[in-house]
Amino acid sequence: MIGRVLADRYRIVRRIGEGGMGAVYLCEHVVLHRPLAVKVLRRDLSNDPEIVERFRNEAIAASQIGQENVVDVFDIGKTDDGALYYVMEALEGRSVGAILRHDGPIAVPRALAVLEQVGRALGAAHARGVVHRDLKPDNVFLVRREDGSEQAKLLDFGISKVDQAGERLTQAGAIIGTPEYMAPEQAAGAAVDHRTDVYALGVMAYELLTGALPFEGDNAIATLVAHQTRPPEPPSRRRSGVPPDVDALVLRALAKRPEDRFDSMAELVAEVVRIRARLGNATPEPVPLPRRDPGVTPRLDLPPFRPSHRGGTVTLPPPSASGVRAPASEKPEERHLGARAVVLLALLLAVAAGAGWWLRGLGIGGSRPDWPGPFPAVPEAASASSAAAAPQRPEVPAGEPSGPPRPPEPA
């Protein structure tokens, strides 16, 4: 792809990222000399109607929202060999996910500023009938404006739900999204709406403030079950300095029932604005982004590939009517069967050893030793002389029990 010109307009400069569905390249408009980014779908996936429709849906959804905190998409087309692509603005900065991985949690004023911008982007998407369904730190980019302030950019509408008559891109009841950020109804394969994004923004707020997720299991299924069953711990218990009203905002966004969350993204944003005003609307600390040097092309810093399930978008078959269930091979009682067997065997061995000592003390199965532990062997001569010098025990007539004398019976 390097060096090719797409649609006589976009010259591919270099590859800047790659994922499961395709790759992202830095390109330059041959006439305007403007740096852009182009996302190209893998050719082997271009024959899958559902994937093609999702890819087109991602480009169209982003282009129609038209809000400053949503990445701009300018064009869509096909390469000469039939691979789909779309062209978007090139972003110079870092994803929120990269910031959390490298720098840890961020200050409360800065976190609130990011949440406000992401909330406005999602609110604009909801007004267009678009539910993102895969909001997470890796899909939010922070760039620097000309005045040095931060600007959040929302990316990746690839699995978004668009309200269009007759359109269904997901199997009925299927679970699709990133487990760590999925609302309970999304984890159960139930219907989703704008309040599903409210929940995901609550998870992201939790991570921004504490550097940790509210729920994280050993695998995707365990994480989905935790979202449905476990109450979240207030962020202030994980990190001191989080104000009570920020705690309340995050916990309301993380309510299990959609009707207990914020009714709309606008209501959540209004609460963020109120808290920022109470805190004095402190200017958030800037992102430590490198300034662009003349002659250096900007780069789209995509998150690195991680082999673990965390952060990855998954699609699972529809769950059972009773909710998400762990596979039989992952049930806790089966998972710990080996450990329990070892503990039981150790207990049996201990009981057997104790019984042996008890029986030997009764004279069954061998003579009772004078000392509880073995002694090192000594030569026979030494043993004989030691036995001769040792005080002899009085012999007990046959038929009388050994042991201390019994007290005389009362007359």
List the helices and strands and how they pair.
Layout: E1 5-6, E2 10-18, E3 22-29, E4 35-41, H1 49-65, E5 73-78, E6 84-89, E7 93-95, H2 96-103, H3 108-127, E8 130-131, E9 140-144, E10 150-154, E11 161-162, E12 175-177, H4 184-187, H5 194-210, H6 220-229, H7 235-238, H8 244-253, H9 265-278, E13 314-316, H10 332-335, H11 337-361, H12 380-389
Antiparallel strand pairs: 1-2, 2-3, 3-4, 4-6, 5-6, 7-9, 8-11, 9-10, 12-13
Helix pairs in contact: 3-5, 3-9, 5-8, 8-9
Describe the structure.
The protein has 411 residues and is α+β, with helices and mostly antiparallel strands. 35% of the residues lie in helices and 15% in strands. It has a six-stranded antiparallel sheet with strand order 1-2-3-4-6-5, covered by helices on one side. A hairpin with a 5-residue loop joins strand 5 and strand 6. The longest helix has 25 residues. The radius of gyration is 34 Å and the shape is globular. It starts with a strand and ends in a 22-residue tail after the last helix. About 20% of the residues have low confidence.
